[in-house]
Specification:
113 residues; elongated
Length: 113
């Protein structure tokens, strides 16, 4: 497979990942805004100042939040299709990026022999 095609697949995969995280963050912003009753400006300030969880217990809680609470909020507000597309885009994007990276490494390894 030509290297330019692998590069194109990698870039498109990263675009899918960016799209997926953008939609997840948009849904999360709406959920937190509704949950705490924040105004738009207050929500923007507090939401973007949140820190990433550290430690295995906190990371599991964050994964549960993304899986269950965010999905329930999306279904409740009629945005369930956005949540499903975002999760699908993330899965496909990460899979495409990993596959194209491995294919590129293998093409380099076999080209040098």
């Amino acid at each position: 497979m030509p290297n330019w095609l692998l590069g194109l697949i990698f870039v498109l995969s990263l675009a899918l990942v960016i799209y997926g995280w953008r939609q997840i963050l948009r849904l999360t912003f709406g959920l937190e805004k509704q949950r705490f009753g924040w105004s738009d400006d207050e929500a923007r300030l507090k939401f973007f100042s949140l820190r990433s969880p550290r430690g295995p217990g906190k990371r599991k809680r964050m994964q549960k939040y993304l899986r269950e609470e965010l999905r329930a909020y999306a279904e409740e507000t009629g945005q369930g299709d956005i949540h499903r597309r975002a999760r699908l885009a993330l899965a496909a994007g990460y899979a495409g990026a990993i596959a194209s990276s491995f294919a590129w490494i293998l093409s380099i390894a076999f080209a040098s022999q």
